[in-house]
Amino acid sequence: MITTRIRSSLRARRCTRTMRRMTLGATEPMYRDCVALASAHYENFPTAAWWLPREVRQAVAAVYAFARQADDIADESTLPAEERKRMLDAWEVLLRRSAAEELPHPVFAPLGEAIRRFRLDVEELARLLVAFRMDLDTHAYASERELMFYCRHSAAPIGRTLLSIAGIEDPRLVAASDALCAGLQLVNFWQDIAEDLARGRCYLPASWLEPHGITPEALIRGGAKSEKLAVVWPQAFAYAAARLDEGRLLLSARPRWLRMLAAGAIAGGFRVLGKLKRRTDLKDRARLRAHDRLAVGWAVAKAAWR
Prior knowledge:
Elements: H1 2-25, H2 28-40, H3 54-74, H4 81-100, H5 108-118, H6 122-137, H7 144-154, H8 156-166, H9 171-191, H10 193-198, H11 206-209, H12 216-222, H13 226-229, H14 233-246, H15 256-278, H16 290-304
């Protein structure tokens, strides 16, 4: 009887694996494309990390591909803003359709599968598109509150989606995730200050600039000048670092892969922030060298064995 049960159990497991391969088969090449896109993009070191469980890695890559391409639509400077808005509207229609039906689309086929498998909140993903639309209409922010409202839409949905994939609803971890994502977004803003000003966007709040006789509009007109912004950077760096620190609560989270992602993001964010503090030309991007990546990898490894 025991032998029969073991054989039945093994047959059931083989059947489950076969069904899973059949389910993934149609979208497998599209998942690979999404993973390749996530792996290739500089800003997202741990996004498509090889050590993530396969289904998690594919889902994360699908979400990233959706967000990355929407961001590219918003930044496509050769098209009028109204045309880009219409394209983002169409992107949202496809997002909502993908949750309910299988679409033959290189992004929305794997994304829709991830949404259905992990029961992801489509409204959170739609928040990303709100941020991209804001980039077309909003060119400056009056206060930290306005800036964090933007981050709640541009960055926090990614973290909340990861928590959903992990099956986490703890409000404390949600708040930590929002803070960490905001910190990473801010680090990216400070890194790309010259490029963003050239596009007519200033993410440094007016409440930080005006005490020093600077306005967002003046920065946008004049471009990024190190001597003008030198008085603002300490506050900007400290604010981003504080948000990264608030994300440390995730280092005690389960499953293991989630705290490993958090550890990599925090370590990478602080490494980039440190390089930004030392740069003299605001057009220079902070590149993580081999020793930086080794330090980030060590942080990830330590998180794995907490």
